Amino acid sequence: MASIKEVAKLAGVSVATVSRVLNDKGYVGQHTREMVEQAIKELNYKPNEVARSLFKKQSSTIGLIVPDIMNPYFPELARAVEDTASKFGYNVILCNSDEDKVKEQAYLDMLQQNYVNGIIVSSNTMTAEQVIKLNIPVVSIDREISKGLPTIVVENMKGAHTATRYLISKGCSRIAHIRGPQGVVNADERCEGYREVVQQESWFSESYIVDGDYDMESSIEATLELLKTHPEIDGIFAANDIMAIGAMKAANQLGTKVPDELAIVGFDGIKLSSVTIPELTTIVQPIYEMGEKATKMLVSLMNQQEVGQTYYKFDVDLIERNST
Amino acid sequence: MASIKEVAKLAGVSVATVSRVLNDKGYVGQHTREMVEQAIKELNYKPNEVARSLFKKQSSTIGLIVPDIMNPYFPELARAVEDTASKFGYNVILCNSDEDKVKEQAYLDMLQQNYVNGIIVSSNTMTAEQVIKLNIPVVSIDREISKGLPTIVVENMKGAHTATRYLISKGCSRIAHIRGPQGVVNADERCEGYREVVQQESWFSESYIVDGDYDMESSIEATLELLKTHPEIDGIFAANDIMAIGAMKAANQLGTKVPDELAIVGFDGIKLSSVTIPELTTIVQPIYEMGEKATKMLVSLMNQQEVGQTYYKFDVDLIERNST
DNA sequence: TCAGAAAGGGTAACCGGTTACACATAGAAA
DNA sequence: TTTCTATGTGTAACCGGTTACCCTTTCTGA
């Protein structure tokens, strides 16, 4: 790879002038500029980003920390982030934290050592202190680290209301909820939303709420157990799509017909939800838009631009399909 | 962030000595070493990776270029690559090429400018020339760029044989194939494998092979068309899982029972294949292992170590589930 | 006519590491 | 005792850019 010195020599100017042409900064004569551009073309010169980063204390890179890219929610988010970052000239370093505090801190250190300009993170375990100590813009997505930090979330409560009311409107008279992990904010909110709608119903009891782990296995088990103890259940609101699919599998295993005998609604609107048979009715989050928004906000933050609002709560939508 | 100079000053030594301690290189007295380590701890010093990269002409980063991380095959691959890279101290820059030659070249340039040490790529459009010009180790995965370049693929032909023979063994007497895009090596091979098994059958004609685009929509359409023109079909081998699921949807739409009236086999063994109802019988690729192997090979290549074999063809397995 | 501003471009310091080289000292071999 | 080698440490060049600062030349306006 040719360096700026070689370009300077070929063009018969100093490196400073080449740099000025490159960055379109300072005064450069028309003729000189052409000479330099010619030399650049001739040598197929591309400036060394590492050297640039060292001087600027800024790499044109952002970090994306997710719990696990294999979790179907995150590929779409990652795609949105990468697309948007790329549009603004940034690269994306992918990190899988497994929600592990030690790994998370290690990634944070690594990103800082690499002079990344900003970080997008989805985590339940990260603390505000960790983030602030970094001294780099951080946007939190899907999960809230702390009020005050830039955050992108969705209307979990409202989505849960919508899902539960919808099941009622479909004629369900006994509606259960498979909730996400205790302590995870969005799981708590979705559960709370469900509870607000059903708690004044005469049939409701706490045993209609069962724990899941946001994965399929836990949900299958929970549903099997649920339908055994409460055979009267005719509607399930699962806190995410994977668990909703698990519920469908459990129902199928027991010979319970979906949607005729049991209606099921999920949450998230991941692509997966439309490949099942029957297709899943779900509360969709605008995942791509959220990733895009997060990245745009991060870019503004990195460029020290004004960014007015730093807390966004995206609306969610019910998509009616065949599981209800 | 503290710099090496500050550490040197605090420890009362020169920066060279600090560097020696850091890298465990050259002679350092026991007492001096302790002083330096103490200073490092005190300042919470972490060496600046960018400065290091500049001098070494090596960043501890590798690039991963995939067509689209949203394609369900790739998250698992990405996870494997990131896990393995991380284990060896490397970061991963994620790039979505959309199989677009221009984007691909742009990513290649960018990665080179950022001094990445190596690249893992999955692409049909990249040429050997592009790769060689980079002068960086590149491992191709899932798709073959050129014999001679480090490559990880699977036994596509054999997998197709297995799938087709399996359908025959299950009593299917008219077996169709939904193939992947023309010109894509693995699609061609899978099709060829199918053809080898069925072409001596008396019932076989080219009209049993239909084009798909490795996505669900194309497959639904193709299957609908196929079943209309050939109602006698009782088995379908789809060239990937997504298309197999598309075929299931089409069958469902026509009221054809899977697996009773129509058996379906997919290819890839992505996680998705086990969430459908009925679960999909498929030829599984060891995706995670492939990503792991690719990364390990890349690391060896980057460290100029001996790597004997550079072409791996992984075996595939039939997983029997409920779609057959 | 002449001061001051604008335009054009070079020199060298700097970013934060690594390492070749120089130098000093101590112990081992001759 | 002398010489050689191993050990320990500092100085400064270097990686490839950016930019503060300086110097010249040309233009502008009073």
From TrEMBL, chains A, B:
It comes from the Bacteria. Residues 2-56 form the HTH lacI-type domain. SUPFAM superfamilies: lambda repressor-like DNA-binding domains, Periplasmic binding protein-like I. CDD domains: HTH_LacI, PBP1_Qymf-like. PROSITE patterns: HTH_LACI_1, HTH_LACI_2. Keywords: DNA-binding, Repressor, Transcription, Transcription regulation. This is Transcriptional regulator. It comes from Paenibacillus solani. The lineage of its organism: Bacteria, Bacillati, Bacillota, Bacilli, Bacillales.
